[in-house]
Amino acid sequence: MTLSSISFSAFGQAEFWIGVGVLAGIYGIFVLGLQLNVGFTGIINFGQVGFMSIGAYAMAILVLKAHWSFWLSLPAATAVAVATGLLIGLPSLRLRADYFAIATIAFAEIIRYVAENARGLTNGNIGLLGFDSSWVSVSNSIQGWLSTSEIQLPLLLVTWGLFGVLTVVMRRVQGTPWGRVLRAVREDEDAARALGKNVFSYKLQSLAIAATLGSLAGYLLALDLAFLSPDQFDPSVTFTGYAVLILGGLASYVGIAAGTAILWVLLEGTRFINLPLSAEQIAALRFVIVGAVLIGLMAFRPQGLFGKREEMVLGG
Amino acid sequence: MWVAASAAYSLANDERRWDTGEVVELMRSVRALDAQRGRLRRAVGARPALAGLAFFLAIAIALLIAKGANAFGQTTVFGVVSGSYFALGAVGLTIVYGVLRLVNFAHGDFLTFGAYMAFVINVTVGLPLIVAVLFAIATTGAVGVGLELFMWRPMRAKGAGMLPLLLMSIGLAFVIRNGIQMVAGTGERNLRVNVTSTIAFLGLRIGRTELIVVLTSVVVLTLVGLMLRFTSLGKQMRALADNAELAEASGVDTNRIILATWLLAGGLAGLAGVLYASAVGVFTPDLGFLLLLSLFAAVILGGIGDAYGALAGGFLLGLIQEWSTLVIDARWKVAVGFAALIITLVLRPQGIFGRARAI
């Protein structure tokens, strides 16, 4: 019966798994920001995909419409994302946690509508192409040094290299006095305030760093796809990020790497199960899996793989 | 304060020389203006609902004068039509929040579920739409109850906090939407309703089906409102929403009321899904997901947890979205709704009617 047979032939395809690895690395960087917000500061950011979208679009628009150098457009795009983060955080971080969650998802959806409808800048649903020529030439020379035929290998190395460095940096930062204040804010806002800490400012800084990480993930995604369109940035990206976050474990930076690798192997692995399903059914199945992972973890193992139960402040 | 600031600005930038008398005069008028603003602010603080309504009416009158009666009237009709399914969906969402303090991200997908259940009866089986509507209400209500029994109740028993419940509802949303997509595909579907015949009155037009949708919604919402106000069940729901421990201590059977809440919220969501599918004409598995944030907007406009507020918020949102098309391109109207959500959260998180109480 075809229903249960699994073909392993494609498991040997390096190109395919490099592609999966790139995506996993991009989501890893994306989730580092969520970890800082949710795991360490206790603010429920449901709009992380908005920062990713801003990073990617600002980079592409600066290169294509303003004719900036690609390398200069990267820090500029991050600056735009951070500025937006401050703009959205200033009024909304004073809100209660669940209101903040709704406000941030609304922000991310507004960004998506702008990407869809401000056609002069973003080309709407037709999308943007051709912003990555500087990267392609660098990628080609890396490919030359490595003497490999795998086109995506340079991006894989850059993505995971960056992800690794950022993970180390974020862990270090968490151990500093600044990081300990964030944790105090998560544990008990009033206590932190009583100790003279400006809770609001710390939350704002946390959100700004998440915006930075989101924008980095944004340009990597843009380079991966060599194409930008609004539907790549729907809220399901944020929530897939949450599945990675919870799978790896709240308040564990190391867990993210494991979480993203496992989830993406699981999601892409569905291609190799010979189910009698159409392509669109397979696409739906992947999100059923994301949903089931979220429900199952929350019900049976809210601390994920590497999280500690005592760190699950939001877990009640 | 900005009055003073702008006065100072014009003082600093004006070429003309000002004499002391003029400056004193100006400062006096600035102070008078500030006092007026203070009075206005106190008045707004005293009667927030009235102030909200007055603000809204002012916008309506401005648009009526600027754009003419016909354009204004027609967008108002459209706004009432979309408001009628926003309100139905929002009431269920807000009641669940009021009673359970749960922001249910799967609520939009309850609407989708209702629409597809109606499709099964109305198109696949071929029975009349009214049977399909009842079936959609019953099955979606049953899904609400089933999830309470197998998911939410055990999670409450474990003492799960806000984030796990939020993420669970998001996971549930993914499973419902994509489960439907796996079975039914992403293609556009439509119910067997008349989407072409329209009724004209006073130079305005409304689809025959749209009119039925509005009337159904108004009747059902009135019944729900009466139920909450006058029946024992409604009173117990409101008691639970006000103070769960006190309600339980006074002998309210919490679990029974929570089940009734889910049944009501699910049933209303199922109905809202069918009404949306009928009024708009076509639907896909994304229906509820795309509507969810609009439902949140309606809930927050009316004050979260306030059932009457959600009702008003739903119609208000419909009007805001449709009226916005008089000023800017119609493709922005959904984003206008989200902007209204954020602005309300920032300026008046308790909702424009300012009633902080739940349900």
Descriptive overview:
The complex is a heterodimer of chains A (about 325) and B (about 350). Chain A has about 325 residues and is an all-alpha fold. Chain A has one domain (about 1-315): ABC transporter involved in vitamin B12 uptake, BtuC, CATH 1.10.3470. Chain A has 13 helices and 2 strands; from the N terminus they run αααααβαααααβααα. Chain A has helices spanning about 15-40, 50-65, 70-90, 95-115, 120, 135-145, 155-175, 175-185, 190-195, 200-225, 235-250, 255-270, 280-300; strands at about 130, 225-230. Chain A is globular and about 60 Å long. By secondary structure, chain B is mainly alpha-helical. Chain B has one domain (about 55-345): ABC transporter involved in vitamin B12 uptake, BtuC, CATH 1.10.3470. Chain B has 14 helices and 2 strands. Chain B has helices at about 1-15, 20-45, 50-65, 70-100, 105-125, 130-155, 160-185, 210-230, 230-240, 245-250, 255-280, 285-300, 305-325, 335-345; strands at about 200, 205. Chain B has a two-stranded antiparallel sheet with strand order 1-2. In chain B, a hairpin with a 2-residue loop joins strand 1 (about 200) and strand 2. In chain B, helix 5 runs antiparallel to helix 6, helix 8 runs antiparallel to helix 11 (about 255-280) and helix 12 (about 285-300) packs across helix 13 (about 305-325). The chains are: A mainly alpha (about 325), B mainly alpha (about 350). Chains A and B meet through helix 4, helix 11 and helix 13 of A and helix 6, helix 7, helix 12 and helix 14 of B.
Runs of chain A with pLDDT <50, length 5+?
Answer: 1-5
- Strand order, largest beta sheet of chain B: 1-2
Kindly provide the name of the CATH class of chain A. Mainly Alpha
Number of helices of chain B: 14
Shape of chain B: globular
- For the record, the CATH architecture of chain B stands as Orthogonal Bundle
| CATH-assigned fold name of chain B | ABC transporter involved in vitamin B12 uptake, BtuC
Going across the biggest sheet of chain A, name each strand in turn. 1-2
Tally of DSSP β-strands of chain B: 2
Instruction: Give the CATH level 1 class of chain B.
Output: Mainly Alpha
Helical residue percent band of chain B: over 70%
Report low-confidence residues of chain B grouped into runs of 5 or more: none
